[in-house]
């Protein structure tokens, strides 16, 4: 739905187009009949009056949601009413300004009067169709954007519903054990869980949030995992502070981090190292999740790709082909998997 600023901008833009169109008509009539000022006054008065009658008259009919114009035969009824009314009003304004009467042409030269009326009707129909077509195109683009936003929100809710119960169940199971064996660690785990759930609630209400918030959420998540896995999980989470306000999709990194732990590090008895980072490359923001776990072949054959696929689908919905997610095997000899997300740096919060 368009806001008042957009409607005012569209109204002004349409008005300027009508004025320019009227100038062209006035120049053509001047070349034929002379008297440039009179032709300009009548052309502007008639054209603007017809346009305003058509534009405001649209609100008297049931309108198409996409084009904001009357539907079907109602468009023709609008033109049949608005063109004569606007023509009469415009001629009357021109007569007042020029201190003359164009209505005398009805008696002295009905053919010329009919020609002027036909010109006004044809020009009005043409420019009305132009506004209708452009309005419908703009409306359809807005509907598509709304549908894409709704799809992205549904993807986020689906992803959240899949990730949170799994993570919460494991955390509570570990918390139950720690309460009896290590109350201090249990308290730390509970504090991180509260912080994580609070940030999850905030993230679930927005499609985008600052990169700093995404990394803070990952910090809480990894703190919970470290309490559970102990020394088997070594982490490094860092990003340049100047990138902290850049907008990124919520729940972007957690599926990749969870995938790295579940399929990369947990299968290793000795565990491993997990590094989450961010950097700027040209006009792109590059996010990386690197583990030294089981490696890409184990992950690929596991059959559990829900989180990774959801991240890809959300990136495609929000950014199109300009955003990518790649899984690769690092060439540093430490094994494991590298997940690299690349998104354009064209959004801030």
Key terms:
five-stranded mixed beta sheet, 349 residues, Heat Shock Protein 90, two-stranded antiparallel ribbon, alpha+beta
Provide structural commentary.
- By secondary structure, the protein is of the alpha+beta class.
- It folds into two domains: 4-144, no CATH class; 182-344, Histidine kinase-like ATPase, C-terminal domain (Heat Shock Protein 90), CATH 3.30.565.10.
- Helix content is 65%, strand content 12%.
- It has helices at residues 4-33, 36-57, 74-98, 104-108, 110-181, 183-203, 211-229, 254-265, 296-302, 306-319, and strands spanning 208-210, 233-238, 247-249, 272-281, 284-291, 324-328, 337-344.
- It has a five-stranded mixed beta sheet with strand order 2-4-5-7-6, covered by helices on one side. A two-stranded antiparallel sheet has the order 1-3.
- Residues 298-304 have low confidence and may be disordered.
